[in-house]
Amino acid sequence: MVAHAEIRVVHRGGSKINFREPVITNDSRFLLCASGESVKVYSSSSEECVHDLQGHTDLVSGIVRNPSNHLQVYSCSVDGTVRLWDFTDGILIKTFIIGYPIYSIYVSENHGAFSSI
After folding, report:
1. Mean pLDDT of the chain
2. Among candidates 52, 31, 50, which has minimal Cα distance to 40?
3. In what order do the strands lie in the sheet with 72-77?
């Protein structure tokens, strides 16, 4: 017998991890993938998800390594924010509020990322 009940969504999950191009760290130890509202950090040796970087409130649309620190990445989202992460520890360092949906991100190695903000 099937009991009918009201369906309630408590947390919205990820999406296809191939939605955006993944990022491989300089030392090839980690693979970072946009997955819904978060960035998943996978160990290339154990193939495990070691961190789930959560903080965005809408679809993560891009990930890029910080050229001035190999332990950090920037993520951008349709929620209008850019977030700087220490992906090895899974820590959010800083949030930049842009206020408009962001669909991709590029960081020049010749210029400090967000140094003027």
Report:
1. 85
2. 52
3. 60-65, 72-77, 81-86, 91-97
Question: Considering the entire predicted model, what is its pTM?
Answer: 0.78
Count structural domains, the chain: 1
Q: Check residue 16 and report its DSSP letter.
A: -
Answer yes or no: is 90 within a domain: yes
Check which CATH number belongs to the domain holding 36 and give it.
Answer: 2.40.10.480
Quote the domain boundaries for residue 59.
Answer: 23-97
Whether 113 maps to a domain, the answer reads no
DSSP 33-89: EEETTEEEEEETTT--EEEEEE--SS-EEEEEE-TT-TTEEEEEETTSEEEEEETTT
* Segment 63-112, tens digit of pLDDT: 999 999 999 999 999 999 999 999 999 999 999 999 999 999 988 877 65
**How far, in Å, are 8, 46, 75, 77 from residue 104 at the CA level?**
32, 29, 9, 8
Kindly state the average pLDDT of the residues 27-48. Answer: 93
